[in-house]
Write a structure and sequence with these properties.
- The complex is a heterodimer.
- Helices cover 0% and strands 53% of the residues of chain A.
- Chain A is mostly beta strands.
- Chain B has no helices and 12 strands.
- By secondary structure, chain B is mostly beta strands.
- Chain B is 0% helix and 51% strand.
- The chains are: A mainly beta, B mainly beta.
- The interface between A and B is medium-sized, with 22 and 20 residues.
Chain lengths: 113, 113
């Protein structure tokens, strides 16, 4: 089974802190994605990556950056956390090559106080 | 651009009731269509998919048929169970495209005993 692991289920941070959300997949998938999930808004794509060191902006990249130094790991960075970034963050991966079923992690619920 | 519209929830049913969750899409080209399910406290997981017109996806008693003429992919189940309580997301991906999923906003289903 494909496993996508997000390092924390719950995080509480203060406004202005730098926050790292980590995601690791164990199936050598090419593509990785970061979403945020908010009530009434569904899932919105923040960033995605097709390959190591490759990244592309999604629909709501403002206030976020990402890092993919190794194929299995995709990190989401909040440079200076703000209260409007309180949300559920979901990581996903796909094999690539047209095999486009996305496999999701369990999510990280981030609260910024 | 491509989009997905699904019926707003929440939906509350009694056990053994019939379920329909409507989903329509707009797309350039011929998308693949998906239903994902999110159980409480978990990430999303694929429920079923269809890749071309008139395909029927099915899993765990759920079905959805890809209707090109009505640009729809409605989710149905003949007899729901308490364990089906979850949030359901309709999604599309354009074939040959970037492998980015476009999600609907989600429909929360609660099934009461």
């Amino acid at each position: 089974d494909v496993k996508v692991t997000q390092s924390s289920r719950y995080l509480v941070k203060r406004t202005g802190e730098k926050v790292f959300l980590e995601c690791v997949q164990d199936m050598d998938h090419e593509n990785m994605f970061w979403y945020r999930q908010d009530p009434g808004l569904g899932l919105r794509l923040i960033y995605f990556s097709y390959d190591v060191k490759m990244k592309e902006k999604g629909d709501i990249p403002e206030g976020y950056s990402v890092s993919r130094e190794k194929k299995e790991r995709f990190s989401l960075i909040l440079e200076s956390a703000s209260t409007n970034q309180t949300s559920m963050y979901l990581c996903a991966s796909t094999p690539g090559g047209g095999k486009n079923i996305q496999y999701f992690g369990a999510g990280t619920r981030l609260s910024v106080l | 651009g491509n989009s997905v519209t699904q019926m707003e929830g929440p939906v509350t049913l009694s056990e053994e009731a019939f379920l329909t969750i409507n989903c329509t899409y707009t797309a350039t080209g011929y998308p693949s269509l998906f239903w994902y399910v999110q159980y409480p406290g978990e990430g999303l997981q694929l429920l079923l998919k269809a890749t071309k017109a008139d395909d029927k996806g099915s899993n765990k008693g759920f079905e959805a048929t890809y209707r090109k003429e009505t640009t729809s992919f409605h989710l149905e189940k003949g007899s729901v169970q308490v364990s089906d309580s979850a949030v359901y997301f309709c999604a599309q991906i354009t074939q040959g495209g970037s492998e980015k999923l476009v999600f609907g906003k989600g429909t929360k289903l609660t099934v009461n005993p």
